[in-house]
Amino acid sequence: MEKLIRLVLENFTVFLLMVGLIHSGLWLWRSPKNRHRGDIIEALLAYFLLYSVAISYFYNFVVHVFFGEAIAQFIGWADSPFQAEVGFASLGFAVIGILAFRGSFDLRLAAVVGPACFLWGAAAGHIWQIWHTSNLAPGNAGTVLYTDILIPVIGFALLKLQQKYPFRS
Question: Structural domain boundaries of the chain?
Answer without folding.
Answer: 2-164
